[in-house]
Amino acid sequence: MITGKTTLVAHLGFPTESFKAPMIYNPWFEKQGIDAVVVPMGVKPEDYPAAFAALFRLTNIRGALVTMPHKITTMGLVDEVTPTAKIAGACNAVLKRADGTLVGDQFDGAGFVRGVLRKGCALEGARVLVSGSGGVGSAIAASLAAAGVAEIALFDAYAASAEALAGRLRTHYPALAVSTGSSDPAGFDLIVNATPLGMKEGDPLPFDVDRIAASTFVGEVVMKSEYTPLLRAARDKGCAVQVGTDMLFEMIPAYLEFFGFGTATADALRAEAKISY
Fold first, then answer.
1. Which of 20, 44, 71, 224 is an active site residue?
2. Is 67 helix (H, G, I), strand (E, B) or coil?
3. What is the pTM of this model?
4. Are 7-107+247-272 and 109-245 equal in CATH topology?
5. Bridge partner residues of 177 (DSSP)
6. Which InterPro entries does the UniProt entry name for this protein (predicted)?
7. 109-245: CATH number
8. What is the rounded average pLDDT of the residues 21-50?
């Protein structure tokens, strides 16, 4: 029940049709008796800076979840960013402090890595390929580097994005082998689709499935459906996979702490969630 005392958390992105966070947070808030609500708000890129500034003038807003395509833009709209967000080059969480200042943080990569590790995928010394060097791909690459992978290959349709991310990774992780320019999945222990491919009917697959080995772990960030065409194809080859919402469940405990709403486990959140596709 929304009241005049309800604390707002905006969920900012475009389009909003694939948003799953409200169906996880809001049942959890209700179960815990927390008077807060996550509200999806669709904002087109050209309107985002003005809309962001206006939104945070509201007196009852605690913060925002930020998703595609605004994670990189948000970096320049807050007063402070955490080291994690700096390395990723993007933030997906904004907290409004009591004094009105805004701090941006990044939990995408931590959520993805925690999910992969819980499924038994060894990352220490692994070779990984990340397709997509935007906000989510940058965050995942940064967290994989922190988890001790030996090599990261980066691919993006915009080569400059991959090169920029490669530069940030080399600065912070000089021992890490970083390459760019190829999306060929052959020979990797883990491959990650961090692009929007799979959100629209008829999208091409982000990888050549024929080149994926059965031993490769395949991770996805798209949440349009639970098993995207990529994941279905990977499963058919015998690959272990991680669906997009797994990353979300794993990062939400960190979000709850960031916003001052306590904490939870991924399993407890799953038990209350009301996700639909």
1. 71
2. coil
3. 0.80
4. yes
5. 151
6. Aminoacid_DH-like_N_sf, NAD(P)-bd_dom_sf, Shikimate_DH-bd_N, Shikimate_DH_fam
7. 3.40.50.720
8. 96
